[in-house]
Structure formats: structure tokens, C-alpha cells
Amino acid sequence: MTKTTTSAPANPVNWSPETQLVHGGTLRSEFGETSEALFLTQGFVYTSAEQAEARFKNEDPGFQYSRFANPTVSMFEERLRLLEGAEMCRATATGMAAVTAGLLSFLSAGDHIVAARAMFGSCRYIVETLCPRFGIQMTLIDGRDLAQWEAAIKPNTKGFFFETPANPTLDLVDIAGVSAIAKKHGITTVVDNVFATPMLQRPLALGADVVVYSATKHIDGQGRCLGGAVLGSNKFLNDHLQDFFRQTGPSLSPFNAWVMLKSLETLPIRIRQQCANAATVADHLATAQGVSRVIYCGRDDHPQAAIAKKQMSGGGQIVAFEIEGGKDAAFRFQNALCLVRISNNLGDAKSLITHPATTTHYRIGPEARAELGISDGILRLSIGLENANDIVADLDAALKAARA
Fold this sequence. Notes:
Layout: H1 17-23, H2 49-56, H3 71-84, E1 88-92, H4 95-104, E2 112-116, H5 121-133, E3 137-141, H6 146-152, E4 157-163, H7 175-184, E5 188-192, H8 197-200, E6 210-214, E7 228-232, H9 234-248, H10 254-264, H11 267-285, E8 291-295, H12 305-311, E9 318-323, H13 326-336, E10 341-342, E11 352-354, H14 366-372, E12 378-382, H15 388-403
Parallel strand pairs: 2-3, 2-4, 4-5, 5-6, 10-11
Antiparallel strand pairs: 1-7, 6-7, 8-9, 9-12, 11-12
Helix pairs in contact: 1-3, 3-10, 4-5, 11-15, 13-15
């Protein structure tokens, strides 16, 4: 049998993102397979005891154990790294594993973190509940206001964390502005870029130190498997992330990595169409009877439209809107939908809708929701790849039913 060793092809730096997402980071065995190989293995064998020792001393390049690294996972990491323009990428089992690793790998008891309060409910748990349990102080601020970032800094502040656009209100944070403040004070900036995706926004290029993703969302994009990623500099990897990752084991499975490798090939096409659909839907909802407010990063009436234009290359795939009549009307609206499906997921090829106050942001409580502007009438709509006219027709029919 032919020996199945792997080698990496050249990755010309002048390749466009679309080309990198098809060819970047590919490893081929001596079989010369066209599609990326799936290495479903826990461990690897060595030619000698001396080679095993050298591997664990990092003197001999190669794989040791799939919790540390795996050929299929490494291909996914390299392809995403090339797209993001990062020095390193580590793939995780879920998006929340990426957030946890991205923060806890460099924070210690006695440190302080400042975070934008507009964020996904599970992210707020990490900052508000988990960090303090380990002696890490935290301060939540209105991330839209640069002055609040500066004012919240303490002598022991080590990290800034925010997501932009934020879930579900699409609040924006000025990445370059916050990163500049952080650098002045020697603070590490971690950005959750899941809503924008690397196709629409590059936090590292804007000055951030670390970017995290739930690859479960747009990167997979077809509702199949979980995953996440942490990207940044080699220094961050060597000083903080590598040991945390190796010892705590938030590793992405090879199968999920293989699925997402194939998904990356179509990411630009999907994002382009979803953004176009979202713009059409947002414009329609803005004039629809029964809708009191529409929030979309691609519209000029977004409260932070100037920041959106400065740091995003598109409006995104998420539309938030408020139904007149509160929770009852919002529930009637959702239950009347035929094409758009009720789900707390997003970034799928299928259009999905959720009621944040009773799902993704239920556990943060009514006071925190009110502070964030998450009313009982707010709905988060993740636009899919269906024909935009079909999505609009489904929404119109449901709006009519909600008013009945």
C-alpha cells in the first residue's frame, strides 16, 4: 500500500479570497486525491521511540494526537487563517468554545475585562458569570460609546471583548477606535465577528488582536454541524492559547472540519446572495404595515450607518425588526410563517427567525433586555438563499395574520 504522507501546496499571496477558499491550505496524500481527505483518527504512529520523543519535544514536525492537531482540522484552520489574514488559527468544537478559549487563555484571577453589554446571551454568561467565578473582574458598558471604553479601564484591565454587529439588535462597535484605545494601554482586544463573517469584516486588519467565530453559523452555513475558531498572532498562540487549547481539549472533530472545508468553498457566493436578499427584505419591512422598526446594517437609517460603511463591505444577512403588539403579535407572526422557519440558529441557507426575548436572550432577564432594547416585539431574521420575493411574500402573509 502506498504510504499516506501529506504535504502542503504553495499558497500564492496574490490569490483572491474566492480562490483561497477553494484551494488554500489543501494537504494531499500520496494518493493524489482531488477533495480534501478526511482523517478520522484519534492518534498517530511513529517509526521509532526516538521519533515519538522528538515529536513531543517539537523537534520533529508531524501529528501526535487529534486533540492537539489533525490533518483535516489543520486544513480547515489554514484555509480560514488565509481568508482572515491571521498568523494562526485554532479550530474549536463550538463557537462558545472559541469565545471561552479566546478569553480564558490569557485572563487570570485578579485581571479585569471590559465588554460591550450588547452580545449573545451565552457570551454574557462567560463575561458576567464565569469570569467572576475565577476571580476575573468585569465591567459591562455601552460599546457604541468610545469614551466608555476609555473610562472603564483599570490598572488591572487586560482584555476588551465585543461582538459587532451585536446579537440581536445589530449594535455596532468601532473596531479601529476601540483597538486603538486598547493598544495605548496594552490591552488585548477580542472581537466576535460571527454576524459579519470574514467576507464582510476583518477585525485584525482594523487593529484587533484576536477574532473568534461560531463556525456553526455562516461558515458551515447549511445547518449540519458545530464548530468554532480563534484567530490571531503567533505570539498570542505561543504565549496563551496553545497550552490552554492542548490541555483543556476544545478541539474540533475531523468530520466537522471536513464538512466546513467544503462549506468554505461556497462561502463568498452564499454571503453575496444572502446580503442581497437581506437588503430586499429590510427595505420591504421598513414600509410594511404592522412593523414599527427595522434594523439592518446596510440601510442608511441604521443608527450607526457611518460605522457600518467604514468597517463592513456589506450589510450582512441579519435583519432585526419590531412587530406592533408585543409578544402576542410576534408569536402569531412566527406561527403563521410557512417558508421561514422558527429556529434559534442563524447563518443557514434556509431563512430562520427567532424571538430573542424568549429564546437566545431569555436568561439575561427583563432588566438587561430592556437596557439593550430587546423588546417583546423584536424578532431576529436570518436571511437564507431562497428567492427574495418568496421570503417577502411569506413575511407579508404572516404580518397580515399577526394583525388579525
